[in-house]
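General statements about sequence and structure are easier to judge against a single worked case. When preparing material for the folding task, we compiled for one chain both its residues and its C-alpha cells. The amino acid sequence and the C-alpha cells for this protein are reproduced below:
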Amino acid sequence: MNSHSAGAIGSTSGTDAKWSVAFYVSDTPHTGRGLFTGRCYRSGALVFRVTGAEYEWASRTEADACSNPNFYGIRKDVWLDPDPPYGFVNHSCDPNLGVRGEREFVALRDISPGDELTVDYAITTDEVHWAMECRCAAPNCRGLIRSVQFLPPEVFARYLPYVNPYFQEVFQQDRPALSTPHESGSQQQTSYGTRHSNGLGDAG
C-alpha cells in the first residue's frame, strides 16, 4: 500500500544512518519503495503495531475494492488506514510478517537488519472482487493475488497462527464456495497506493 511520501521516516544516506532507526523507507528491486528494518527480530517476535484510523465501509464491487488504496481489513466491513510508515509494507508471496489480532505484525521467521518487511496481502482482505498482479519475484510467487478465500490451503496453514481471527473464520467458511478464482479483478500497479498494488507499500 503506498501513496505516502517517504520523507521524515529516517535517513537512507549512509549505512550508519540507516541502521540507527527501527524502520526506514527505501527503494526495492522489484516493487518501488518498501519498509525496511535496521533491527533484528526473532521468529514470533512483535515487529510493530500499526496505528491509524478505522473506517466502516462495505466493499461489494470491483470499483469498491480499488477505491481505498491504503486500507486493509481488520473486521467485517471495518478497515484500517495505516499511518506512515506502515503504508509502505509491500506484499510478498514469501513474507516475513504475519498478523496477530488486528494490528500487530509479527515475525514469521528471523529478521535481520536491512531486511524488507513484507506481508501476504491475501491475509488482510476478504474482498472477492479484489485482485493484484504480483511482482514480488519470490520463487513461490503466485502471480495473481486475491483475497484470503483464494489462498491455497497449504499457504494459509503456513501463516498460522499469525492470521487475524476474522480472516481465519472467513477462510474456513467461504473458501469452499469459491473454488475457481475469476481473474477479472483490478490489477493495480502501485500499492496497499493504488489499492494494495504491493504495499500496504508498493507494487505486488
